[in-house]
Write a sequence for this structure.
């Protein structure tokens, strides 16, 4: 008897299913949908960024977290890192084709949220007014 593959890593012919526990697409989704992943990808839609400029654009991210986020997104094929020949050497980050597709959809989500913050704040206020102790 042969054992059934449990993920697309075991059998690349299997269709990705992010809802499946062992699907290799799940950690990629987690990387993209992380707080810093979303913001870095959408910021890079504006064009190439050097690390320090991207860190200023993504206000509040630590140097370490941004570095880890960019490495993860580069590994997943979303971000391209290019070392430019200059003195001192410069590093520039851009989106790959896949990264651009993902960032476009993330930006749409951000726009929906930003344009509906009055509705969100009202819902939050209503929730807190009517909330009884919950278990």
């Amino acid at each position: 008897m042969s054992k059934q593959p449990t993920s697309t890593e075991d059998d690349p012919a299997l269709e990705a299913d992010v809802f499946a526990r062992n699907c290799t697409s799940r950690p990629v989704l987690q990387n993209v949908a992380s707080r810093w992943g979303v913001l870095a990808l959408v910021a890079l839609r504006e064009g190439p960024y050097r690390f320090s400029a991207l860190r200023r654009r993504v206000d509040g991210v630590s140097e370490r977290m941004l570095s880890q986020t960019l490495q993860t997104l580069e590994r997943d094929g979303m971000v391209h890192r290019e070392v430019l020949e200059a003195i001192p050497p410069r590093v520039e980050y851009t989106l790959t084709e896949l990264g651009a597709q993902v960032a476009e959809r993330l930006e749409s989500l951000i726009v929906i949220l930003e344009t509906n913050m009055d509705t969100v704040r009202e819902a939050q206020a209503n929730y807190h007014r009517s909330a009884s102790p919950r278990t």
User: Anything to note?
Assistant: The radius of gyration is 19 Å. Residues 97-115 form the longest helix (19 residues). DSSP finds six helices and three strands in the chain.
